[in-house]
Specification:
The two termini are 37 Å apart. The protein contains 15 helices and 13 strands. Helix 5 links the parallel strand 2 and strand 3. Strands 1-3-2-6-8-7-12-13-11-9-10 form an eleven-stranded mixed sheet, with helices on both faces. It has a two-stranded antiparallel ribbon with strand order 4-5. The chain is 37% helix and 14% strand. The chain has 475 residues and is of the alpha/beta class. The chain is globular. Helix 3 packs antiparallel against helix 4 and helix 8 packs antiparallel against helix 15. The protein has a single domain, classed as Alpha-Beta Complex (Amidase signature (AS) enzymes), CATH 3.90.1300.
Length: 475
């Protein structure tokens, strides 16, 4: 097996190699650190390399292996974390020029839990500044530059967890932590051709994560496969006294594909501007039907989903970041539209927010009723391939489609898996949305789909040839 093959191994394969002592965690970690240092800047994916911590954790993992102790399948395997998760003594910059010197004295709960599972933190990964809460306009809205897609560096990796998506897709780390308020896990997962899991709101502690919107923020994995996402979720899920919004529910992962016939609700999509996506999606549904699943059209209740979500999001951003928005630091942000958007959150009227919260209750009620008829809702993650780096994202959001808003408003879990390629040869994603705290069904369905297809095994063809310096914005 070549070093390139090892770089694209999933968690289960790497765990077997480590337990069989065919490779050591130190060797695996040094290889990951080397790839991150050489290739991470070429995708603008790297926020901070963590070699001292990584090698210390790798040596500890190797000691446990020598004693025959295996705490989890993650033991000894390097990973990356989105740089809005606190790491003690290591910069946590939130992708923002205004926070370049920010260092916390504590670890986020998810970082602590992965350390307890024996995982190795190799890097902090890039993101859109302040997780893009102000409604950024262009892909370069980050202190590290635009997130570049390993399938085509003239295309966007997706926001706001751009570094996590591109690092996994390029084989820099086997998995990474991202966060999602409204699409920030499933979007880069779809664009970069990896698997991304958005957990139910309240399943994973946000303690130590930058707050964007307290009733919408979620932390989850991006990895090579649904199975890999399941192992990571098992390690990070559960209640936390430091985060009162956690539900106190853990997650036990059983790595087996779905065995019963699930009722799949196919959500409506307007494919008029995306005929190739329609073809790819229809084939994905045929694959699911051949395995015994029962797809049927699911009418989505009529509500102003995006307007309601935007109002609540803006109100919660204002509550979390008012001091920063009123400070001189705001002027340091890269994206002018983001600066204007953040300022505008302070002008919201209380009556607007109350009406949005009232409408949210109706939305949650009506969406919950869908799950009386369907076990899982199915749709393309997005209608389009990765956008160009010069695309006006505020305009293109209306064309991209997708149902990430159900995660924002209703806290529903979702799994995005690769389902094929669009007309430009870039990945497209298939999204499974489930009932609250029913990640097990989503993962089983994802494993079934990935047993029947090989889209998740495809590798970006240009990764070997990528230049090894920090990327400028291609013209």
């Amino acid at each position: 097996m070549t070093s390139h093959d090892v770089a694209f191994q999933g968690i289960a394969g790497l765990s077997r190699l480590l337990r069989a002592r065919q490779i050591s965690s130190v060797e695996l970690t040094r290889a990951a650190l080397d790839r991150l240092e050489r290739l991470g800047p070429a995708y603008n994916a790297l926020a901070e390399l963590t070699p001292d911590l990584a090698l210390a954790q790798a040596r500890r993992a190797d000691r446990l292996f020598r004693r025959g102790e295996v705490r989890s399948p993650l033991q000894g395997i390097p990973y990356g974390a989105k740089d809005l998760l606190a790491t003690a003594g290591i910069p946590t910059r939130w992708g923002s020029p205004a926070h370049r010197a920010q260092v916390f004295a504590h670890d986020a709960t998810v970082i602590r839990r992965l350390a307890a599972a024996g995982a190795v933190l190799a890097a902090k990964l890039a993101l859109v500044e302040i997780a893009g809460g102000g409604g950024y306009q262009y892909a370069d809205a980050s202190d590290t530059g635009p997130g570049l897609n390993p399938w085509n560096r003239r295309r966007w990796a997706g926001g706001s967890s751009s570094g996590s998506g591109s690092a996994v897709a390029a084989g820099l780390v086997p998995y990474a932590l991202g966060s999602e308020t409204w699409g920030s896990i499933v979007t880069p997962a779809a664009y970069c051709g990896v698997t991304g899991l958005r957990p139910t709101w309240g399943l994973v502690s946000r303690h130590g994560a930058m707050e964007l919107a307290w009733s919408m923020d979620k932390i989850g994995p991006m990895a090579r496969s649904a199975e890999d996402c399941g192992w990571v979720l098992e390690a990070i899920a559960g209640g936390d006294p430091h985060d009162p919004t956690t539900a106190g529910i853990g997650f036990r992962f059983t790595p087996r594909p779905a065995r019963r016939a699930l009722r799949l609700g196919i959500l409506p999509s307007d494919f008029s501007a995306a005929p190739r996506t329609a073809v790819v999606f229809e084939e994905a549904v045929r694959v699911l039907r051949r395995t015994g699943m029962r797809p049927a059209r699911a009418p989505l209740p009529d509500h102003p989903y995006e307007a309601v979500a935007r109002t609540i999001l803006n109100a919660e951003i204002a509550a979390a970041h008012e001091a920063f928005i009123r400070s001189r630091g705001l002027a340091a942000l890269v994206d002018t539209a983001q600066r204007r958007g953040l300022r505008a959150t302070l002008a919201l009227r209380a009556s607007e927010v109350v009406r949005a919260e009232q409408r949210r209750l109706l939305i949650r009620r009506d969406v919950a009723r869908l799950f009386e008829r369907y076990d899982v809702l199915v749709s393309p993650t997005l209608l389009t391939e990765a956008t160009t780096l010069r695309t006006n994202l505020r305009v293109s959001r209306r064309r991209r489609g997708g149902y990430a808003v159900l995660g924002a408003l209703c806290g529903l879990p979702a799994l995005s898996v690769p389902m094929g390629f669009g007309p430009q040869g870039l990945p497209l994603g298939l999204c499974f949305t489930g009932r609250p705290f029913d990640e097990a069904t989503l993962l089983q369905l994802g494993m079934l789909f990935q047993r029947e297809t090989d889209w998740h095994l495809r590798r970006p063809p240009a990764v070997r040839r990528v230049p090894t310096q920090r990327a400028a914005l291609p013209v």
